[in-house]
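Extended Data, record Motility protein
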Amino acid sequence: MSDILGAVALQQAQFQQQLGIALLKQDFAQQEQILQIVDDAGAAAQSGSQSLNSSGTGQIVNILA
């Protein structure tokens, strides 16, 4: 019986580790997307070609719309 409980505990620990890794990868992907949005917004403001929703020169708003 203890062998079964040990195997179940090991399986649970492995699952939790894999879930933690998956969530960390997802978080990194989201951070990369945010950095890309910020970079795009900065490039648009510097070039004057405000392709995003904008309000005045150099003011970019609603970049997630």
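Summary. The mean pLDDT is 80.
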